[in-house]
Design goal:
Largest sheet: 5 strands, antiparallel
CATH topology: NADH Oxidase
Number of domains: 1
GO molecular function: oxidoreductase activity
Radius of gyration: 18 Å
Number of helices: 8
Shape: globular
Keywords: Cytoplasm, Oxidoreductase
Helix content: 40-55%
Structural class: alpha+beta
Subcellular location: Cytoplasm
Protein name: Nitroreductase domain-containing protein
Order of helices and strands: HEHEHHEHHEHEH
Distance between the termini: 21 Å
CATH superfamily: NADH Oxidase
InterPro entries: Frm2/Hbn1 (IPR033877), Nitroreductase (IPR029479), Nitroreductase-like (IPR000415)
Length: about 200
């Protein structure tokens, strides 16, 4: 069997120590990310995933803004650790904000032609998110970059939409940092196959 995809999946890890030593241009990365998301599957080809790619000062602004919001939510000692984490994120080459366009999700959920599935459309939009994030992550891995994914939504959702003037229907689902590999990934543990899989022949 061909194992190119599986080999990439085995290499994929969360790495927090990311850097800016990236040889691929920002323009090429942006086009590549768009193409990967464009060809990511979604239920009924509804295409609910939206993405915002941030480089340079805009990338820094995301994590400065996140830090400002969290400062109001955390005790001073806890915020010191969070502030250090924000600075680590800023060291990465760029970030991708993943959104679900809830106008699209609701339109499919309310479509009488597929009324049987209306309650599943929200779940399927999350599947589309997972597909897109995994595809982008694996694609960046293939190009020698690494990634970590954060979930500061919904705490930062309103502020991010206001800062970058995004549509109100866009719901923030994840924040992905990417860049050159400057640290090691931890080993990945797996639960027992007997717990996770069943085969009927």
């Amino acid at each position: 069997m061909n194992t190119q995809l599986l080999d990439l999946m085995k290499k994929r890890r969360t790495i927090y120590e990311l850097g800016k030593d990236v040889k691929i241009s920002q323009a090429d990365l942006y086009e590549y990310i768009k193409e990967v998301i464009r060809y990511t599957p979604s239920a009924f080809n509804s295409q609910p995933v939206r993405a915002v790619v941030l480089f340079n000062e805009q990338h820094d602004q995301l994590w400065d803004l996140t830090g400002e919001i969290l400062k109001e939510k955390l005790e001073p000692d806890a915020f010191l650790r969070t502030k250090a984490k924000m600075e680590t994120f800023k060291q990465s080459f760029g970030s991708i904000l993943f959104f679900a366009d809830m106008d699209v999700v609701k339109a499919y959920a309310d479509n009488p032609k597929i009324a049987t599935y209306q309650y599943d459309e929200y779940n399927w939009s999350e599947q589309a998110q997972g597909n897109a994030q995994f595809a982008v992550w694996t694609g960046l891995e293939e190009n020698g970059l690494e990634v970590n994914i954060q979930h500061y939504n919904p705490l930062i959702s309103a502020a991010v939409k206001a800062e970058f003037k995004l549509p109100s229907s866009w719901q923030l689902r994840a924040e992905m940092n990417f860049g050159s590999i400057e640290g090691n990934a931890k080993d990945k543990d797996f639960i027992d196959d007997e717990t996770r899989f069943k085969l009927f022949q």
